[in-house]
Write a structure and sequence with these properties.
By secondary structure, the protein is mainly β. It has no helices and 30 strands. The chain is elongated.
């Protein structure tokens, strides 16, 4: 395997169709598609400023990478990608990637990041800013993550999240087959229209959570006081520790909590409207 150290690459397709290559302390500046159609690459301590740098690539490892804001859409249509211990400010990074491993990566201003990705594992992931993180992605296994982003995880399927801090408006909209464990989740309009979504040992905040859901489960969860008007038009099985500020028009299932401030069952409730609501106090 050839090793290139401390080099500067510019122009169009600077290392197009490369195979079996180590790159160390290199800079990719200007131009487009520097490493397109390549495979079996290891890039260590490299900086990326050019656009579309890593398209249609396979078996690539990035160690301590730095993706600048000028590095637009750097990884699309790839397979078997690993990134660790790096920082990205790149918009639209990681799209249509199959087989992705992220370890201790930081994404700042993560606009339209991680779209339509499949078979993703991530630990130590930190995201700040941007919109629509992970949209339309599937088969995600995430742990020890910290996300502040708007509209995250929309239309995702087959997701497991553990030990997370997530603050994202309209989180988990229209998702399917999601399990979130041991996490703190803050979101206005959390998980509307989701199917088969479970929260275990989670603390949930934000107004009007968990409406229009099917197959919704909450196990040993707690709510912030701002989490009002919960479960409207949802099929739900919930065991809550502490108080729920208010519950509105759940469709069916059961809700158990220490106390509930307001239970709203009005003329707009949907059939079969047979949800069993129990307070322990």
């Amino acid at each position: 395997m050839q090793t290139l150290t401390g080099q500067h690459f510019a122009g169009e397709r600077a290392l197009y169709h490369s195979e079996e290559l180590n790159l160390e302390n290199c800079v990719f500046d200007e131009g487009e598609s520097a490493l397109k159609e390549s495979s079996h690459l290891t890039l260590t301590d490299c900086s990326f400023i050019c656009k579309y740098v890593n398209w249609h690539n396979r078996h690539v490892t990035f160690i301590r990478p730095r993706f600048s804001v000028a590095c637009r859409a750097p990884l699309w249509y790839d397979e078997d990608i690993t990134m660790r211990d790096g920082v990205s400010e790149s918009p639209k990074i990681l799209r249509e990637v199959n087989g992705l491993n992220l370890v201790n990566m930081v994404f700042n201003e993560a606009e339209e990041t991680l779209w339509r990705c499949r078979n993703v594992r991530a630990s130590g992931l930190k995201v700040r800013g941007g919109t629509y993180l992970f949209m339309n992605s599937e088969n995600l296994s995430l742990k020890d993550i910290d996300i502040q982003n708007k509209y995250s995880f929309q239309y995702c399927r087959n997701v497991t999240i553990e030990n997370a801090l997530i603050d994202s408006k309209d989180l988990f909209w229209e998702c399917e087959n999601v399990v979130v464990r041991n996490s703190r989740v803050t979101s206005e309009y959390l998980a509307w229209y989701a199917r088969n979504i479970t929260f275990e040992n989670c603390h949930l905040g934000g107004t009007q959570p968990l409406c229009y859901c099917k197959g919704l489960k909450l196990v040993n969860c707690t709510f912030e006081s701002d989490a009002d008007l919960a479960f409207e038009n949802s099929e739900v099985e919930a065991t809550i520790q502490g108080k729920i500020t208010s519950v509105k028009n759940p469709v069916t299932g059961s809700i158990e909590a220490d106390s509930i401030g307001d239970i709203i069952l009005d003329e707009n409730i949907r059939e079969p409207h047979d949800c069993k609501i129990v307070t322990r106090a």
